[in-house]
Design brief:
The chain is α+β, with helices and mostly antiparallel strands. The chain contains 2 helices and 9 strands. Strands 1, 2, 3, 4, 5, 6, 7, 8 and 9 form a 9-stranded antiparallel beta sheet that branches. A hairpin with a 4-residue loop joins strand 6 and strand 7. The protein is globular, with a radius of gyration of 13 Å.
Length: 132
């Protein structure tokens, strides 16, 4: 529980400090605030899937993200399950996934091509995983 709280505080600090990836160059989806009911579904794209369930559980397959708090951190593909939570700021919603093995990652809600997406940067912020 303490680790989850630390991850939430880290994500909140990044969001509020503006240290997350900027969308001002239209390279990444525009931030969007969305509710838990909208988040709760299957998201897929780029060979990955993420199923966010209403009770706070998730299942992931081939999720290529930057991972924290795990033995093999950094950008890599990961499958597994765990718990998720969301955090809103004034411009967007972030989704924190905490795998049962201790690895965690953050995705952001956004809008791309008129559709709501979840996204995260990869490889030095040059690429993004976009789940629709």
């Amino acid at each position: 529980m303490a680790r989850r709280r630390a991850v939430l505080l880290l994500a909140a600090g990044l969001l509020l400090s503006g240290c997350y990836v900027s969308t001002e160059y239209n390279r990444f989806p525009d931030g969007k605030v969305i509710g838990r009911a909208t988040l709760t579904r299957e998201w897929a794209g780029d060979g990955a899937s993420l199923v966010l369930r209403g009770g706070g559980a998730f299942a992931a397959s081939g999720l290529k993200l930057e991972y924290f708090e795990c033995e093999l951190g950094g950008v890599r593909k990961k499958s597994g399950s765990g718990t998720w939570t969301s955090l809103d700021d004034s411009d967007s919603t972030s989704v924190l996934v905490d795998f049962s093995d201790g690895c965690s990652a953050t995705l952001w809600a956004g809008e791309s091509g008129g559709k709501t997406v979840l996204w995260a940067t990869q490889a030095d912020d040059q690429e993004a995983l976009i789940l629709k």
